[in-house]
Every structure is written in structure tokens, then in C-alpha cells.
Design goal:
heterodimer, A: 589 residues, alpha+beta, Heat Shock Protein 90, Ribosomal Protein S5, domain 2, formyl-coa transferase, domain 3, 4 domains, B: 397 residues, DNA Polymerase III, Chain A, domain 2, 3 domains, 8-stranded antiparallel sheet, 6 helices, 27 strands
Chain lengths: 589, 397
């Protein structure tokens, strides 16, 4: 095998892999180019989640006819001149790679006209090979059309996710940029109707409404903080609105969407003790910082950044968010949406207030203080010599029953020592698995509502639901589309019958986003609750030796016998060598 | 306070200037009865200690007992021999439990105002209870009963029972936790719904109301009202003091004040189906019994019971087959004979909802009107058109 230099086509395809990995990354590069060109209006069209066509049209400064060919060459850019510029980058792009990379993995057409030129120019590129520049008539600005992405890189094509997922990525990306650039008019269409349209009048809340829905956007808290060289603007969710994932936490640094775990952590820290475990806030925060203080040239996709003074940024973000949170009373509002969708007019602050009757309100506010003093105790140290067996899924060895102590615990001997088993927890686990197996693969009964309820969902979630309507029906939700982003819930699963239908639907959508088995957690929680309250033997109940033996046998047959459905251990293991040490037989201290 | 409620009650009376000591004698039976009426309005766990207490005060020759949780207040007057005027608030649980065990004879209550301790003496028993100054008790509004109108107690009790159970218990939808009450002339309409069912009852008042009114009254307050009113031909006076968001009900010796629920009750008229494809007439008791049986098996799962309505053929009479099954406990099936006018249908209902409405239907026969497996069913008593209940079907997926 001889060593040889790769042909430019192969080299550029390899390089393209770093920048262009999915349709959303193409859109991102083209969007950033359009924004760098000073566009006031950007229109994006996508067909078949971008596999077939992506088109970005802007009204920016355009590319002069004579430079069009150069624009598509690798490492060709108008945004950077000398090395020192690299350390103070104020444009979104600078590497001069995007167009070349996209061109090498698709059929790319670019049409552009500068405002001072009478005619536009068109250039077509196919798999990295440019055609000739034609003179055409065109409006001022630039149009980039990307067709048949990855048609020459089948391996990439295979790694694309489903259309729904890819479309969601595009939706998410465009709405984020729309939010970051409220003065630019964005229009995103996938097929016929535009799925996002912003006015470009600078009203961020209106865009927030498109992103999260009107109700949520109204409640989002505004963050505004400034410190020498640093400025943080944006919106964060009040403590009453949370998500089960960190996906809705968005950071922009100098107008560039970045994914930075330390910033996300800083925000989460601001919510410390205010949110339940495994719940995360939503946020769209825009950090402005001296370009020299941040290095965005970490990766060609530019999603990662490095700060010169990481700690300072971290604490700045955390303080700003915390301050915004505390400035608003953190009391979760009670949903007042009437079942009939027509929300009842809210009285607002009552006019006649009498102190004597008012204190109940203050008291209830205090009661709902979200601090939970016990949250950090849960991880308190466990006994040094007693080891709770906490490997879920680990099997239980064959046990020989010794007996019951304190009418609460079973004592058993295994090949590797002594086992103490909590009879209540163990029985819970046994019953839970029995009930779960009965519920597998069963259709979920649903209850029709007296009158349908409208739910408004943000575009990303709306397109997700749109594709899942038949599956939703299987889970007991009868949902019909009712205008852009609006759905009517006609029936809901009995499991949720006592919850707010809107919240229930949102929970289900979140499950879909997580690609979990939808409703699984809800079903499990219900069963666990029932098992615990009504069916399982309690601590303090004397069990006959037969009952004890049968419980042990059933527990051995369980899939995850070592924890109860609530996650507490069912058994504690006292290994033989611990016993030996305690009795001073071996290795005594 | 919940969102969507009216502002808290307003002070109307200030408990009169401090009177030196209170000294009254009352019959144990009377006191126990009075306490049982008011104690339901006590908040059992309140961060405001005085709300766990019952106000005991002398009031124009009688003894007044009051309790409130700031949303609902109940006052009751009992006969007593008053030697010295005064007032205090007594911890409700202690007082109720104590009075319940006292011998059935005269109980004398003596308040020491300096220590706020109430001496309760009956027979050989002698007790001192630590009390809270009555000044701290939230004053109860005193309504003007001029604009009140009268409702017959027995009727009203039945109306409440037929409607209030359908109200929601979900705090997230305050409007549905209430019962809509509409009065126009001598026509009274009450309606309640919880999102899955709707109960509507019409009635005629013995006297016309002075003006039309419409209010949403918490179902809980109405249930309490039904509880404290005795059976019989008594009258209830009802008044909605202007601009306060409250309703006051007064019966002979008791008064109940409740906050109204602020908001717009959904337009229930449009939910009531205007037509049906089949009308099934069944014996109320047989259907109720079948539903109770089915519920034993349905409750393990999702309360689903199937109703197979088989229209009468040429030879066999019509029938409804009610069935429920559970993975854990087994299955049950009951056939109730029925007169069916229209087509047969297989439909599923929440059997608990159905049982609850059948329990308040007074007529011997009941009609179930249905159209399709996914459209609402309507329950009406046969022979009277003053009650109807809409119940949404379920799907088995």
C-alpha cells in the first residue's frame, strides 16, 4: 500500500463531515452567512426535512459577480484578513469553509446580486465541482439552494435520523436564531404553510410565543444584567415552568448559538433548591462579551467556545439568573384554564381587600415556598460496614431463609454472607412487576371530554405531534389538528383523568422528545403508588415461615429485585468478610 | 386563597368591646348538636391557630357558635342561660371531643378573661381549656336579609344531592369546583360539571325571587348546607350581598357564608345533545345494582364498564348487558331487561360516574339516551323532565 495525497474531492468531503452533519447544520451555516451579510429578511424553505431541498433567501449585501466563484472555494472568506483578526471575531462565520463544504456533499446553486449591480450571477456546484458563472436577473441579496444533500455520501445519508427528528432540529435552530435576531424577519416553511414567521420588529416576546406558546411566553422572566465587558439579556422560566430535559436552555454568545455545559450548569445552579430533582428550566439567554475574551474557533461547527475567564462568566450568569428569579415571587400559579377552553376572565387583584381576610393568602404563599430542606439529605452516607445492594438489575443469589426479625425484616443467608430484606419493599417489588406485566401491550382506555380543549404547542412540538396522532390515539389521546400549532383534545387517557389535559398532553410530548416509551413513567408511578398503599405487606406484620419463603422465592424471580419501585433498596448485604473483620477473626484494625 | 376566587370576606361587625367575663349554662345535648354543625367549617390544620377554634359568644340571649376556614363560615345559635355576656374562641377538636363525653345535663361555661381559659363544668367533670381571644377571630359578615328569597329546604336538599356530586375536585379548574345557580322569577336551575359529566336540575320556587341572579357556589359549601339543614318544611333564605362575592344561606338557627367562585361557568347548554338514536328505559334499581357489581371489577382498572344495548327483536325483549373485567380480580356480567326504542349499541362508560348519578335519580325508571359509541349518553328520570345528566363515553383503545 502506497501513501499518497488524497484527491481534493475526498479531502473536502472529509472536511465537510465536520461542518455538515445534518440538514440543520447546513441551515445554520447559510443562516449565519445571511446574517453576516446584514440581511433584514431571511426566508428558509425546506422540503422532506432538507433531504431534497433547502433554500435560504436573504436581502443582504450579496456577492459581486466576479467573486462568486471564489466564494465557493475552500478557505475563501470576506470576513477575515489577518491572523490577529482571529482573536477578535465579530462575524458569525470566518473560516471560509461552509459553502465549500456544503457544495462538496450536495448539488448547490447560488444566485446573488449586490445592490449596486444591475444583474445577478448564478453558479452551480455539484459534488464540489463548480460550473460556470451565468448572468441572471435576481433581486438584491443572495439565494442559496441546496439539493439532494449527501447524495454522494451514502454513509452520511444513512446516519440521518427520521424526517421528524431532522425537521425538529431545523425548527429548533431557526426559532433560536429568530429569537436572537428579533430585528430580522424570519420565515420558515416546510412544504406549503410557513411554520414560523416573525415580524422583525424587535419584539422578542412575540417570538418567544412562537417558540413556547403564548401562555408560557407571558410568564417568562426577563433577565438583564451588565458588568464591565459583560452583558446578559434574555428570558428564563419561572420556577413553575419546568422541563424534563435541558433541551430548552439556549445560550447565544455575541449572536452565535453555542452549546456550553458550563453556562448550562451556571443557569441550573441559579435554580438550585427551587426546582425538583430532574426538572430543568427553560431559557434563552444572550451573552455579549468582548470578542477577544472568547475563542469560538474550537471546532469547525463553532458550537463550542472557550472563555478566557471561565469562572467570571460562570458566576456572572448564575448571579444574573438568580437575581431575576428572586425578583419575582416564586409561587407556582394555579392553572385557571376552564375545561371549555374559553378561559375565564381573571379578576386580577381584587378591589376590596380586607387585611383580616387577607392573611390566609400570605400564609399559603409561605407554605408553598419551594425550598426543600431534605433534598440534600437523600445522599447522606450509608453505613460503613452494611452495604445496601443497589445495583438495579443485579440478580439475587439463592437465599436460605433464617427468619423474620422485628416483624419487619427477613434474614436470609446467601453464598456470600448475610442478607437483610425489608419485607414491605420486597413485596412491593414483587407486586409491581406482576402488575406491570399485566399492563404490557394493553391498550389504554380513554375518557371523552365533555367539550374539546384547545392546546397550543410551539412549532417544534406541533410538528412532532402531527406525525404521532395515530400513536397518540393508541395511548388514549384523541387529538385533532385545529389550525397552526393548535390541537383539540377530545379524549384523554383515564390515567390522566384528574389532571389538566393541557399538562397531560405536554407531558406526553416531552416523553416523545425523550424517545421514551410514552406514558411509561406515569403508569409505573400509578402502579407503584397503588402497590405501596393497598397491596403490599406492611412493616410490623408477622409473616409465617411459608409466607416468608414464598416472598423470597418471588423476589428471586423479579427482574430488578434489589430495589423497590420507589428506588429504595429491598435488601442489605452483610458480606462474610465484614463479619469476620467485626469479630476480629481476620484483618482486624 | 385560590386563584379565581372572590376577594376575602369583608369585616362588617367588629366584635364588641371587651366584656369582662362570660358565664353561661347550656344543655350538653344542645351544645354538642351546635358544635357538630359548625365544626365542619373548622380548618383542621391551619397555620393560623384561631382558625382551628370555634367562636363561642353570647348573642341576644342565645349562645352563638361560629367557625370558618376563610372560604366557608358556619354560624349556629343555641339556646342558653346567659348570666354574664362575653366571648372567646375554643380549640374545636378539644371542645367537641370533651362535650361529646360529658353527661347529658347542664354544662356551665365560665371564661377567665385574664388567662383566656374556659372552665367547663358538668356533673363531676371540671375542665379548663386554653382559649384564644375572640378579637383574633375573623369577623363574620352580617348580611342584610331584605333582598333574600326563600327556598323550600327539602327541595333544595334534593337539588344539591342531584347536582353537586358532578362538580370537579380538581383545584386546577376552580370554576368547575362550583355549582352554577341561576334564578329567574320562580325558575331555579343548578348545574355542575367536571369535564367528563354534567348534571342539570330545574326547579320551581314557591315564591319568585326579587331579581334574577347567577352565581357559582362552591360544591363543598352546598354539601355542607345540605348537611346542616334538617328535613321538613323549613325554608332557607338566600342572599348575595352586593359586590362582596359571597353567598349567605340562613335556616332557622344557623347561617352559612361562602365565597363565590369568580369566573364564567361554561355554556353547558351546548353540551347537551339535542337528539338521540336510541332511548333505553330501565329500572333504576336494577341498573344501579348492575353498576355496583360491575364497579367491583372495574375499579381495579380504569372504571370502564361496557354496556351492550341490544334492541328488542320480534321475539325477544330488549336488554342491556353490563360487563366489567379486571386482570387481577376477574370479570362480571349482568343483563338488565330494558325497553329500547332505536338501534342497538356497544358503549363504554365510567361505571362510577353512572353509579353516582343513578343513586340520585328518584324515579323508578330511568332513560339512557345514546347515539354512538363516541358521543355522550344522557340519563333522564322517566316521568319528569326536571333533571338530566350527560356522561361522556370511554374508549377501550
Amino acid at each position: 500500500m502506497s501513501i499518497h495525497i488524497l484527491s481534493p474531492e475526498i479531502a473536502s468531503q472529509i472536511a465537510a463531515g465536520e461542518v455538515v452533519e445534518r440538514p440543520a447544520s447546513v441551515i445554520k451555516e447559510l443562516l449565519e452567512n445571511a446574517l453576516d451579510a446584514g440581511a433584514h429578511s431571511i426566508s428558509i424553505s425546506v422540503l422532506e426535512a432538507g433531504r431534497r431541498l433547502m433554500e435560504v433567501v436573504d436581502d443582504g449585501c450579496g456577492i459581486p459577480v466576479d467573486q462568486l466563484e471564489l466564494a465557493l472555494a475552500r478557505h475563501a472568506t470576506s470576513k477575515l484578513n489577518q491572523v490577529s483578526d482571529l482573536y477578535s471575531i465579530s462575524t458569525l462565520g470566518f473560516r471560509g469553509e461552509a459553502l465549500a463544504s456544503i457544495g462538496s456533499v450536495s448539488r448547490l446553486t447560488i444566485i446573488s446580486r449586490t445592490s449596486d449591480s444591475d444583474v445577478g450571477a448564478r453558479l452551480q456546484v455539484e459534488a464540489g465541482i463548480s460550473g460556470s458563472v451565468d448572468v441572471v436577473s435576481a433581486p438584491p441579496g443572495t439565494l442559496v439552494r441546496v439539493q439532494d444533500l449527501f447524495y454522494n455520501v451514502p454513509a452520511r445519508l444513512k446516519f440521518l435520523k427520521t424526517d421528524t427528528t431532522e425537521r425538529r432540529a431545523v425548527d429548533t435552530l431557526v426559532t433560536r436564531y429568530a429569537l436572537a435576531y428579533p430585528h430580522v424577519r424570519f420565515k420558515l416553511s416546510e412544504g406549503k404553510a410557513p411554520s414560523l414567521q416573525t415580524s422583525g420588529d424587535g419584539d422578542q416576546r412575540a417570538i418567544l410565543a412562537a417558540l413556547y406558546g403564548v401562555e408560557v411566553s407571558r410568564q417568562m422572566l426577563e433577565v438583564l444584567a451588565e458588568e464591565e465587558g459583560l452583558k446578559l439579556k434574555g428570558f428564563i422560566s419561572p420556577t413553575s415552568i419546568t422541563r424534563s430535559n435541558r433541551r430548552e436552555i439556549t445560550f447565544f454568545i455575541n449572536g452565535r448559538w453555542v452549546q456550553d455545559t458550563s453556562l448550562t450548569t451556571a443557569l441550573n445552579n441559579a435554580y438550585h433548591t427551587l426546582l425538583m430533582v430532574a426538572r430543568y428550566p427553560m431559557a434563552a439567554l444572550f451573552l455579549e462579551i468582548d470578542p477577544a475574551e472568547v475563542d469560538v474557533n474550537v471546532h469547525p461547527a463553532k458550537a463550542e467556545v472557550r472563555f478566557r475567564n471561565q469562572d467570571r462568566i460562570f458566576s456572572f450568569v448564575q448571579r444574573a439568573a438568580r437575581r431575576a428569579l428572586l425578583a419575582y415571587a416564586p409561587i407556582p400559579p394555579i392553572s385557571t384554564q376552564g375545561l371549555w377552553g374559553s378561559s375565564a376572565p381573571q379578576g386580577g387583584v381584587p378591589e376590596q381587600f380586607d387585611p383580616a381576610w387577607n392573611f390566609s393568602q400570605e400564609l399559603s404563599e409561605q407554605n408553598e415556598s419551594p425550598f426543600s430542606p431534605y433534598s440534600h439529605l437523600s445522599s447522606a452516607g450509608t453505613g460503613s460496614s452494611l452495604v445496601p445492594v443497589s445495583l438495579p438489575g443485579a440478580e439475587v443469589p439463592l437465599l436460605r431463609l433464617v427468619g423474620q426479625i422485628g416483624s419487619t425484616y427477613l434474614v436470609a443467608e446467601g453464598p456470600d454472607g448475610l442478607y437483610l430484606i425489608d419485607q414491605h419493599a420486597a413485596h412491593e417489588r414483587v407486586l409491581f412487576e406482576k402488575l406491570m406485566s399485566q399492563h404490557e401491550n394493553k391498550n389504554i382506555p380513554s375518557q371523552t371530554l365533555l367539550s374539546p380543549i384547545s392546546v397550543q404547542l410551539p412549532p417544534a412540538q406541533a410538528s412532532l405531534i402531527q406525525d404521532q396522532l395515530p400513536i397518540l390515539a393508541h395511548f388514549g389521546f384523541h387529538v385533532e389538528p385545529f389550525g397552526p400549532g393548535i390541537f383539540q383534545v377530545r379524549a384523554m387517557p383515564v390515567l390522566f383523568a384528574h389532571a389538566d389535559p393541557v399538562a397531560a398532553l405536554r407531558a406526553l410530548v416531552e416523553d416523545f422528545e425523550e424517545d421514551e416509551r410514552p406514558l411509561q413513567s406515569e403508569i409505573e408511578a400509578r402502579l407503584a403508588g397503588r402497590v405501596c398503599k393497598r397491596l403490599a405487606v406492611k412493616a410490623g406484620q408477622v409473616l409465617s415461615p411459608e409466607e416468608q419463603r414464598s416472598l423470597l422465592n418471588d423476589l428471586e424471580a423479579c427482574n430488578s429485585p434489589r430495589t423497590c419501585p420507589h428506588g429504595r433498596p429491598t435488601m442489605i448485604h452483610l458480606p462474610v468478610d465484614v463479619l469476620e473483620r467485626q469479630f476480629g477473626r481476620k484483618g482486624a484494625r | 386563597m385560590k386563584a379565581g376566587r372572590h376577594p376575602p370576606m369583608r369585616i362588617d361587625t367588629i366584635i364588641d368591646e371587651r366584656i369582662e367575663a362570660m358565664k353561661v349554662t347550656v344543655l350538653q345535648e344542645t351544645l354538642a348538636h351546635g358544635l357538630s354543625i359548625v365544626s365542619r367549617a373548622v380548618s383542621p390544620r391551619s397555620t393560623l391557630p384561631v382558625l382551628s377554634n370555634v367562636l363561642v359568644a353570647t348573642d341576644e340571649g342565645r349562645l352563638r357558635l361560629s367557625a370558618t376556614n376563610l372560604e366557608l363560615g358556619i354560624t349556629c345559635w343555641i339556646g342558653a342561660k346567659i348570666e354574664e355576656e362575653g366571648s372567646t374562641t375554643v380549640p374545636a377538636r378539644t371542645f367537641v371531643d370533651l362535650v361529646g363525653t360529658l353527661p347529658a345535663e347542664q354544662v356551665s361555661l365560665n371564661l377567665n378573661t385574664t388567662t383566656q381559659s374556659l372552665n367547663v363544668r358538668a356533673g363531676a367533670s371540671n375542665t379548663d381549656i386554653k382559649c384564644i381571644d375572640s378579637q383574633e377571630f375573623p369577623p363574620m359578615p352580617v348580611p342584610e336579609m331584605d333582598s333574600a328569597f326563600q327556598i323550600n329546604v327539602a327541595d333544595f336538599k334534593e337539588i344539591i344531592q342531584q347536582v353537586a356530586f358532578a362538580a370537579s375536585t380538581d383545584e386546577a379548574r376552580p370554576v368547575l369546583m362550583g355549582v352554577l345557580m341561576n334564578v329567574e322569577g320562580d325558575k331555579l336551575t343548578m348545574a355542575a360539571a367536571d369535564g367528563f359529566r354534567l348534571s342539570v336540575r330545574h326547579a320551581t320556587l314557591s315564591t319568585s325571587a326579587p331579581q334574577a341572579l347567577s352565581a357559582i357556589i362552591p360544591a363543598r359549601a352546598l354539601n355542607e348546607l345540605a348537611r346542616i339543614t334538617a328535613e321538613g318544611g323549613e325554608m332557607i333564605s338566600m342572599v348575595l350581598p352586593k359586590g362582596r362575592g359571597q353567598v349567605v344561606f340562613r335556616v332557622k338557627d344557623a347561617e352559612l357564608v361562602s365565597q363565590l367562585i369568580d369566573g364564567v361557568f361554561p355554556d353547558y347548554q351546548q353540551i347537551i345533545p339535542r337528539a338521540y338514536k336510541s332511548r333505553t328505559i330501565l329500572s333504576t334499581q336494577s341498573l344501579l345494582k348492575a353498576c355496583k357489581q360491575a364497579e367491583i371489577f372495574a375499579r381495579e382498572g380504569s372504571n370502564v364498564a361496557r354496556f351492550n344495548i341490544k334492541s328488542s327483536g320480534d321475539l325477544e325483549p330488549g336488554s342491556v348487558e353490563i360487563s366489567a373485567q379486571s386482570e387481577e380480580t376477574g370479570s362480571n356480567e349482568t343483563i338488565v331487561s330494558a325497553t329500547i326504542d332505536g338501534v342497538g349499541l356497544l358503549i363504554a362508560f365510567n361505571v362510577r360516574f353512572l353509579r353516582e348519578v343513578l343513586e340520585v335519580v328518584r324515579s323508578p325508571n330511568v332513560a339512557l339516551e345514546t347515539s354512538a359509541a363516541n358521543s355522550p349518553g344522557v340519563i333522564r328520570p322517566v316521568g319528569s323532565d326536571d333533571f338530566l345528566h350527560v356522561i361522556m363515553p370511554m374508549h377501550l383503545g
